[in-house]
Amino acid sequence: MATPPKNKLFFGSFVHSKTLAELEYLHSTAIAVDATGKIVAVEPGHATAAAAAEALLPKLGWAAGDVDTVATKSDSHFFFPGFIDTHLHASQYPNVGIFGNSTLLDWLNTYTFPLEASLADPAKARKVYTRVIRKTLAHGTTTAAYYATVDVSSTNLLADLCLAAGQRALVGRVCMDQLSPAYYRDESPAAALASTLASIAHIESIDPSASLVRPVLTPRFAPSCSAPLLKGLGALAADRPDLPIQTHISENKNEIALVKELFPPSSTGAPDDSYSSVYDAFGLLTERTILAHGVHLSEVEAELIAKRGAKVSHCPCSNSAITSGAARVRWLIEKGVTCGLGTDMSGGYSPSVLEAARHAALVSRHVAMGGDDKAKLTVEEVLYLATRGGADVVGLGGRVGAFEVGMEWDAQLVGLGTVDAEGGAVEEEDGNVDVFGWETWEERIAKWVYNGDDRNTRKVWVKGRLVHERKG
Amino acid sequence: MATPPKNKLFFGSFVHSKTLAELEYLHSTAIAVDATGKIVAVEPGHATAAAAAEALLPKLGWAAGDVDTVATKSDSHFFFPGFIDTHLHASQYPNVGIFGNSTLLDWLNTYTFPLEASLADPAKARKVYTRVIRKTLAHGTTTAAYYATVDVSSTNLLADLCLAAGQRALVGRVCMDQLSPAYYRDESPAAALASTLASIAHIESIDPSASLVRPVLTPRFAPSCSAPLLKGLGALAADRPDLPIQTHISENKNEIALVKELFPPSSTGAPDDSYSSVYDAFGLLTERTILAHGVHLSEVEAELIAKRGAKVSHCPCSNSAITSGAARVRWLIEKGVTCGLGTDMSGGYSPSVLEAARHAALVSRHVAMGGDDKAKLTVEEVLYLATRGGADVVGLGGRVGAFEVGMEWDAQLVGLGTVDAEGGAVEEEDGNVDVFGWETWEERIAKWVYNGDDRNTRKVWVKGRLVHERKG
Lengths: 472, 472
What we know:
The structure is a homodimer. By secondary structure, the first copy, chain A, is α/β, with parallel strands linked by helices. Chain A is built from 15 helices and 18 strands. Chain A folds into 2 domains: 141 residues, Urease, subunit C, domain 1 (Roll); 311 residues, Metal-dependent hydrolases (TIM Barrel, Alpha-Beta Barrel). Chain A has a 4-stranded mixed β-sheet. The mean pLDDT of chain A is 95. At the A-B interface, helix 3, helix 13 and helix 15 of A face helix 3, helix 13 and helix 15 of B.
């Protein structure tokens, strides 16, 4: 699947987020990407790819023979930034769709811990991680913030496989020294920190410049970490201000009650007993912190999170599936909290960030049904969360998530289906988005958001490298 | 696509609803279907298709050469009853996914009426209706309760096309003589009734025994019908006790207020000003009536609906998308109301009943978040609604929706994807359901409900006839 590094010229229609509210449509446009994967020119206004090449290549000093050209076929094809999945558990992938009527804490014990523990078997880990990387790439996920397991070697394997497949990834060894069954936890805070350092060292050894893969400090969530472990991770985070941090927050009401019980302010020195204050007291609420869920945050907590610059990964599929609640994304954004989307497999049932975007729009309507009509998220807004917002959440803002000079080419070629005059013969490969021909571009994008799937993601590039292509 | 009528023997795993709560798994089973499409034998306990044929054919008096055998390939394939879509607007299909942030009444004026009116153009109607039939068949919908448009000829065309494609369908000419723009409505109650009779006559002429296609009385919804029109339709319903009736009820709060304003009890003679009482006063609340939505029904209304034996088509995708509300399905069922699922395209964004089932489970969790934990619908329950429940809703209970002797063979062959030892090579055609091999059958079904799509629906039969087959 890998292609050797070469200059590339992309031509056709490009769609990306300009702001939260607005998509920009660049038609008859050429984007030049150099051999390192960087966007070096964005030029609208060319009638054909050949005309664009003729105008652009001399300016770039590129010989025509040294350039691969990728032009879109028709006006139902366009380039879109790759999706950023800001929260998912690679190790839980085999369980997608399996959760019964459980909620968070029983779901962890019944479905999740046994599966995660079983990935200490390297053959099983390889099978599962290979699959989840291929699957998410096929759905256009160019960057993923992964939780692996407690096991160091299987975590390291996940990083190896991401690098080999060319997927940009944050890879976190899961820290937990309490709450989970004895067969699946860190033996002590010291052991947890040592294992974390070992995994960090491995990941930094395979990609020293963090060109694609980087380690991420990963306290599973407060209830599964002892105070000494959280303290140690906070100290490590202070030592290593380049490392991102990921954890969960305020997903489920019983979980919140458990945090209050486990971490009273008297034990943490926090000013109150909120979940956010616990992380803050341990130095883990930082501008590098990715907080998954944030469903039941209070006003004060949202303000603290915004003040610290921590980010929220909204995981609507998971929140609905395991009955956690309906996160108020508009409210978080208005509080100044940076938000992105997570599939949260396998609390979430789908590997697709597009499904997360669609369901974010739907869940926002359920929030609106409570009386706050402006809670509704538009198609444009959920796509922003899936790309630019997500890039900001995982610390890659300005580097990926849009098509601007200086950013890296993490992108997907999207193709929608077209309906012929008889309404009949079509390519099955086209999937479920039917363009009849009279739709505006805005309507085509809405159709993609509501009925698109991996069949519409024809090709995927990360850092200029082709990492997925549909056979069809 | 049509195959000549022939006796058929299906062999392998069959899964269908026994009750609301329970799926039945029939493995190593043979089902014999005669040339008229009727199930004549269901026999578990045969090791192979050949063994089943040897045991079964002599009992049936069938010569081996006269029988087509269809055996499932592996334990990730199974037969499942075809889906019943109890509510959709064929004429709105081109608008799926296009609704912006609108709600019902502005959505009708902005998106819906202009499109429906445009289908008076027969070429456009043919294109759209051909497409919607192919698309829904591809998603396993063997029976659809369609709304067409106000236009008689385009409604008749929809019935012609369903019959030709072999899809079981209720086809309704939309009655409306008020509320909609002047360019798109019946000219008078008398004109509406005459057009309705004309469409009924056509549909009965092409399928006199209603073997597949039947007409359905279709007052769009109370606000778009004058009292004389509703009265006329009630009289027609009384004259023709064989005809089903379909309409909308209690979808949106502004709509409910409009009904109260338009139909005060003083004008209808109803005992109260509820939406249900309006239909009841006009003789339209019967055991043949399919009521779409029922989101905001009161206790008294649910009891009246149960008493009259009218049915509810739950349309979760639509209810979320256009912010109508979250219908309380468990509550309706406990009130004694028979429920099924509708895609409600294009208020709903998807042609897939499986998506409606998935979203019914998710929406039920949002109802549960309000505090009523037992509101949650299980995988088994949403599949019941999609098949057996739907059959009861459209008046085909006991005839389709399950695999029992005497019922007709409306079925789909479902194939799930399997992951090889390396986690890699798979058929793209397999879609997004990944079976790793260790899953129970119940877990496989859950995976299908949460990640399945039309790629998993390999073949579809209606009344024994193969009406869809994936190329892949």
